[in-house]
């Protein structure tokens, strides 16, 4: 099978990967670039656990072919914050109890970050719409919406 070399800016660092035409961005991120924080939930774009920020927009990496990311910037949960320096969204998720089993958390945080980057003061409805592609069976969404809204309210105008 023919392979191609792509280069992406992953969490601020340019990286190369050899791919086939059929590989998804999810497969390349997890299996070739070690970004295991990007979860493989359904593989069909239904759950949002594989969400990443691709050139400023939240996308499901399971529905994106890897070659579509060539030359582009990708941010995963690891690029947003970490245990030593968590992003305000991550802190708010913890404070509001918006994390239970944790499987959807990476995708939720990524979707929330993409929203707040584009719209720093979203309404509850806009938050709801931004996370509508992310399934969570544990929290019931209200705590997640509260967490994102708190970050928006605390951000500078």
Provide structural commentary.
This protein is an alpha+beta fold and 157 residues long. It folds into 2 domains: 73 residues, Ubiquitin-like (UB roll) (Roll); 75 residues, Orthogonal Bundle (DNA polymerase, domain 1). The protein is built from 6 helices and 5 strands. A 5-stranded mixed beta sheet has the order 2-1-5-3-4, with helices on both faces. It starts with a strand and ends with a helix. The mean pLDDT is 95.
Nutshell version of this structure?
Helix content is 34%, strand content 16%.
Characteristic terms for this protein:
157 residues; alpha+beta; Ubiquitin-like (UB roll); DNA polymerase, domain 1; 2 domains; 34% helix; globular
Q: Topology, pairings included?
A:
Blueprint: E1 4-10, E2 13-19, H1 25-32, E3 51-54, E4 57-60, E5 73-75, H2 77-80, H3 88-95, H4 105-118, H5 124-130, H6 142-154
Parallel strand pairs: 1-5
Antiparallel strand pairs: 1-2, 3-4, 3-5
Helix pairs in contact: 3-6
Number of domains: 2
Compressed to H and E, one letter per element, the order equals: EEHEEEHHHHH
Helix content: 25-40%
* CATH topological fold name of the largest domain: DNA polymerase, domain 1
Poorly predicted runs are: none
Broad CATH class of the largest domain: Mainly Alpha
Strand content: 15-25%
Class derived from helix and strand content: alpha+beta
Which strand order does the major sheet show?
2-1-5-3-4
Mean pLDDT: 95
Number of strands: 5
| Biggest beta-sheet profile | 5 strands, mixed
CATH architectural name of the largest domain = Orthogonal Bundle
What is the CATH homology-level superfamily of the largest domain? Answer: [2Fe-2S]-binding domain
State the separation between the terminal residues, measured CA to CA: 52 Å
Q: Radius of gyration, rounded?
A: 15 Å
Name the overall outline. globular
Number of helical elements: 6
Pfam families: Fer2 (PF00111), Fer2_2 (PF01799)
GO molecular function: 2 iron, 2 sulfur cluster binding; metal ion binding; oxidoreductase activity
Protein name: 2Fe-2S ferredoxin-type domain-containing protein
Domain 2Fe-2S ferredoxin-type: 4-80
